[in-house]
Amino acid sequence: MNTDLSSEREMESYLKQLRTSLRALPADQVEDIVREIRSHLIDSAGTSAAGDGRQVNEAIARLGDPAALASAYVMDHLALNAQATRSPLLLLRLVSLWATRSFEGIVALVLAVLGYAIALIGLGCALVKPFTPDRIGLWVEHVPPDDYSFQLGRVAMPPSDAHELLGWYIIPLGLIVGALAFTATTRYLLAKVRKYRRTRSGDISGALASSRS
């Protein structure tokens, strides 16, 4: 087996793994990415498709693991869609993936879950209160000798010997707190997405530039 044939097979194997790892993306986008990577690998070895074997192998090594490269493209695609749609589900999906790769992603995920949980509780209490007024509220119960227990939300049965603090005021308060928490969390995640896209796009560009050197 000559060196050029061996290198061409290495390139095709790399592209096959890349294509498989990109399966979460639309098919036309996958083909565009694979075509781009193939072009970069060929350019790194000159004008021949097989090129100089050593240069092709070095370019593949500089690109790194195909699954990691594909992950950068997939997450950039998610970030673009999340930024365009402002969908909380897409934002949470993105930061969940990001959390597996960096401490900053973990922090973003924790704050996102906390923020949306507050929004869900606040809005949920406000919207459900008119239908089950006796089971939605903020109860405080004295726990001897000098402690207190608080319970917020919907309960099957109000705690015994507890006093409900908010009454119908929980509706405007829940709407305000829920809306503020939802808006603030979404804006925070969108800012993180913009920062993430700059970083990951730079990583992709850097990998492709390195493959030419």
What would you say this structure looks like, in words?
This protein has 213 residues and is mainly alpha-helical. Helices cover 70% and strands 9% of the residues. Strands 2-1-3 form a 3-stranded antiparallel sheet. Helix 1 packs antiparallel against helix 2 and helix 6 runs antiparallel to helix 7. The two termini are 26 Å apart. About 2% of the residues have low confidence.
Tell me the number of helical segments per DSSP (H or I, 4 or more residues long).
Answer: 7
Helix/strand class: mainly alpha
| CA-based shape | elongated
Output the radius of gyration.
Answer: 26 Å
The strand count comes to 3
Instruction: Give the amount of beta strand, in percent.
Output: 5-15%
Numbering strands along the chain, what is their spatial order in the largest sheet? 2-1-3
Major beta sheet, specifics? 3 strands, antiparallel
End-to-end separation in angstroms reads 26 Å
Order of helices and strands: HHHHHHEEEH
Helical amount among residues, as a percent range? 55-70%
Low-confidence stretches: 47-51
Return the average pLDDT rounded to an integer: 82
